[in-house]
């Protein structure tokens, strides 16, 4: 809960897609019940997630779609 609050309060120039993806991967590595999948731009294009890519196009950062799964 505290981490979610910290990430939400970070300025956008620090909480970049890359930083958030690295944080998600770290969370998954530190827990055996959580898995992480990070989709890069080409993966997002293959899934035809045009609306997501349209929003991400306004950024200088490459888009990343992050899936954290609790099992």
In words, what does this structure look like?
The chain has 71 residues and is α+β, with helices and mostly antiparallel strands. Helix content is 48%, strand content 17%. It has 4 helices and 2 strands; from the N terminus they run ααβααβ. The longest helix has 13 residues, at 17-29.
Fill in the keyword field for this structure:
two-stranded antiparallel sheet, flat, 71 residues, 17% strand, 2 strands, alpha+beta
Lay out the secondary structure.
Layout: H1 2-9, H2 17-29, E1 34-39, H3 41-46, H4 50-56, E2 65-70
Antiparallel strand pairs: 1-2
Order of helices and strands: HHEHHE
Helical stretch tally:
4
Oligomer state of the chains in this structure: single chain
Residue-averaged pLDDT: 96
Work out the number of β strands. Answer: 2
Protein structure class: alpha+beta
Write a concise synopsis of the structure shown:
With 71 residues, the protein is of the alpha+beta class. It has one domain (2-70).
């Amino acid at each position: 809960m505290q981490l979610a609050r910290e990430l939400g309060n970070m300025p956008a120039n620090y909480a970049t897609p890359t930083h958030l993806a690295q944080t998600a991967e770290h969370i998954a590595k530190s827990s055996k019940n959580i898995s992480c999948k990070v989709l890069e731009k080409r993966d997002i294009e293959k899934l035809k997630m045009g609306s997501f890519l349209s929003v991400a196009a306004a950024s200088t950062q490459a888009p990343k779609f992050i899936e954290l799964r609790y099992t």
